[in-house]
Structures are given as C-alpha cells and as structure tokens.
Amino acid sequence: MNRHASTGTPPIPFVDVAAQRRRLGSSIDEAIARVTAHCQFIQGPEVFAFERDLAQFCGARHVVSCASGTDALLMVLMARDIGPGDAVFCPAFTFCATAEAVVLVGATPVFVDVRESTFNIDVDSLRRAIASAEASGLRAKAVIPVDLFGLPADHDAIAAVAREHGLFVLDDAAQAFGATYHGRKVGTLAAATATSFFPAKPLGGYGDGGAIATDDDELADVLRSLRAHGAGADRYDNVRIGINGRLDTLQAAVLIEKLRIFPQEIEARGQAAERYRAALADIVAVPVATNDATSVWAQFTLRVASETRDRLAAALRADGIPTAIYYPKPLNRQQAYCRFPVAPGGVGVSERLSKEVISLPMHAYLDAPTQDRVIAAVRRAVKSLL
Ligand SMILES: *Cc1c(COP(=O)(O)O)cnc(C)c1O
Fold first, then answer.
1. Do residues 372 and 26 lie in contact, with contact meaning Cβ atoms separated by under 8 Å?
2. Are residues 236 and 135 in the same domain?
3. Is 74 in the pocket of ligand 1 (CB under 6 A)?
4. Per residue in 61-107, pLDDT tens?
5. pTM
6. Is the N or the C terminus of the chain less surrounded, counting Cβ atoms within 10 Å?
7. What backbone torsions phi and psi does residue 275 show, to the nearest 5 degrees?
8. Residue 225 belongs to some domain of the structure
C-alpha cells in the first residue's frame, strides 16, 4: 500500500468504483453470466430491457442506447441533418466531445460563455452568438446546453431563445443524468438528451456507453437506424449513412444492475455535497445549491485564486487527496477548436473559470471519515495559502 509520510494513511480515490463493485456484489457477476450464456453480445435482450428501464426512470418516451456519449451527440446531429453551413451553439467551458460532434458532421461550433454561478450556458451570450453567426452567413440550427458537473442548465430560458430562433435543443447531459430542473427529470428538458455511461459518470458502466432520450417517435426511429449503419427494414437494407454505434449487451446488463441502486447513490452524492458545502463555504468558493434544480454532483468543484490553485493541488496531493481540473482550457483555447467563432463579447467567464476551478473527490461511497479527511486537508491548505 502506498502510504504517505505526513498522514500515514493511504491516498483516497477520486472516484471509488471498487466500493460500488463491492456493494453490487454477485448481481453484476450473475448479469454478466446471463449474457455469456445466451451469447447475444450485439443487440441482445438486455439492451432493450435497459432502454425501457431508463425511459421509465427519466420519463422520456424513448431511450435509444448507443456506444458512447459522443456518439449520442453525433447521432442526434446526423438525424437532424445538421452539416456544413450550420451553426451549433455550445458552451466554451465543457468537455471537448460537445463541440467535437458538431465538427464531425461538418457544422460550425460557436462558443458561448457560461454563468459564473452555475458554470452553465449564459443565455445573453447565446443571443449574441446567434446574432453574429447569422450576420456571418451561417444558419443558426441548434444549441447544445451542457448540464455541467451534474447541474441542469437554465433550460426554460434556453427553450425561450430556441423557440424565438427556431433552434433545435440537444441537452448534453453526459454528467447530469438523474438530476432535475423545476421538478422535471433530465431526459425530458429538451427535444433530445444525450448521456454517457463512461465509468466515471454518475451512472457509469464498465466501459464506454451512451444513450439518447427523446419524446419524438420519428427521431427515435432514425436514431435506431443510425446506430446500426443506417439500417432500414433489415440490417442489409441501408437507407442512410450511419455508424457502428451500438451499446454492447454486456454493458447493458451491467447498467441494468447499476440503475437499480442509482436513486440511492444520487441521495448519497447529495449528502456528500451538502457536507462539503457546510464544512468549506466559510473559507473557499463552493458550488451553489439552487431551488430551480437538483444536481447529481458529477463533480464537486471549488474556485480559488488562480495563483494559488497549483499550490492547493500540491498540498492536497501531499496529504493523499487527489484533485482534478475540469477544465484547464476553454474549448476556444484548444488547438483543435481555436479556429471556430466565439460569441461577441468573448467568453471571459469560461477563461477565468478554467484558471480557478479545482474538483474534490466525489462519489456515492464517500463515507464521513474519508470526507472529513478531505475537508480537514482543504481547510489546512487554504489557510496556509492565504
Ligand atoms: C463525458 C462527456 C461526453 C462524452 O461522453 P463519452 O461517453 O465519453 O463519449 C460528452 N459531453 C460531456 C459534457 C461529457 O462530460
């Protein structure tokens, strides 16, 4: 065991997948054994059972599973025939996949700033971005709000702007499945919702996976075709260009078991977040809790002065506490994305956040003693840096 000198205790994990594995026990092994017995590894019965379970969980009419969160975003843009000459608005402060899907269909991502308080898309910046995209000759087609770190964006305000400008709304809920907004569940807040089952997400599998939730029957049909190479009546009838974007049966079998305990895990994440907030709010900027929405706390992200962030991370590391920086650069500063347009007025909040944010260990199995260790270390480090 890797013990640290200053505390004599082992480093704690950032996300404790092993603790969840212990809790799930034999149910996972049995689920996997059922698949290895029936051998329908592609589009087996668990895939469709999981889609039904997930649709029931979030209240959407359809859930179409797929190979990753990135494919979920990509397939929706393909289904909507979004391509060259089309502008798709997305926040600058997000994981690259949000904009990557836009570029893959040949459309132009237009980077929008986020709000300081929620880290989510700023509707005023969105309005400016739409006006400038249209003035430059692009067709404003869609907006991809991201529910960053588990907290839903301001979907009512986004819907109002989208209606005004005829934009399709694709919710990037890769980090926020299970969250609510004005009592409505993520999966029903936009015309289509993409999510991810990457292992570190709140609802993660044992590999890559994703899904799209929608109430639109026609869109769901097209998505089912797209994930299977654009299949029509059968798999050797190709009616459109698609991708190989299916969720593995084995992952679906694992996810069925994980979804059963997901509501309790969401509770536990919420309690851990509250403990952090109560114990740290007096010395450091903690994330907001609002009456509008509940978060699934994919991350618990502090803000500190940019000059002290590296030293805070180093001090915590020395105490066996891992931290992570989501995200160290806004997308408009990335080599691959810097050629795309930015909303007039810039994305100053995204730029600042990328220098100030730091995320603490957060998962459903963060017990009080472990969390107290994190809290004590953060308090000690922040005080010594002041
Ligand atoms: C993880 C993530 C994705 C991509 O999901 P994958 O399953 O890894 O492809 C997209 N958007 C956001 C905001 C994410 O956090």
1. no
2. yes
3. no
4. 999 999 999 999 999 999 999 999 999 999 999 999 999 999 999 99
5. 0.97
6. N
7. -60, -45
8. yes
- Strands lying side by side in the sheet with 184-185: 184-185, 180-181, 293-294
**Does residue 121 lie within any of the structural domains?**
yes
Final residue belonging to a domain, choices 257, 285, 319: 257
Q: Are residues 52 and 111 in the same domain?
A: yes
Identify the CATH number of the domain in which residue 377 sits.
3.90.1150.10
Distances (CA, A) of 204 to 92, 127, 183, 257, 262: 25, 34, 23, 11, 10
- Relative to beta strand 180-181, strand 300-303 is unpaired
Q: Choose which residue among 15, 68, 70, 147 to substitute to test ligand 1 binding: the one with the highest number of ligand atoms within 8 A of its C-beta.
A: 70
69 lines ligand 1 (CB under 6 A): yes
Q: Measured from the CA of 208, which atom of ligand 1 is nearest?
A: 7
- In a domain? residue 367: yes
Atom of ligand 1 nearest to the CA of 72: 9
Summarize pLDDT for 4-43 with one digit per residue, the tens: 445 557 889 998 888 999 999 899 999 999 999 999 999 9
Based on the structure, what is the number of domains in the chain? 2
Q: Say yes or no: CB of residue 208 within 6 Å of ligand 1.
A: yes
* Ligand 1 binding pocket includes 46 (Cβ within 6 Å): no
Examine the domain organization and report whether 278 and 290 are in the same domain. Answer: yes
Residue 327 contacts by C-beta under 8 Å, 6 or more apart in sequence? 93, 94, 95, 354, 357
Q: Is residue 123 part of a domain?
A: yes
Alpha-carbon gap, residue 55 to 72, rounded angstroms: 15
Long-range contacts, stretch 287-291, CB < 8 angstroms, 24+ apart: 287/119, 287/149, 287/151, 288/117, 288/118, 290/118, 290/151
Lowest model confidence (mean pLDDT) among 2-6, 11-15, 144-148, 354-358: 2-6
How far, in Å, is the centroid of ligand 1 from the Cα of 95?
7
178 close to ligand 1 (CB < 6 Angstrom): no
For residue 303, what are the β-bridge partners? 285, 357
> Is the Cβ–Cβ distance between 43 and 261 less than 8 Å?
no
Instruction: Name the residue among 102, 134, 142 with its Cα closest to residue 339.
Output: 102
43-68: string of b/e by CB count within 10 Å (b at 16+)? bbebbeebbebbbebbebebbbbbbb
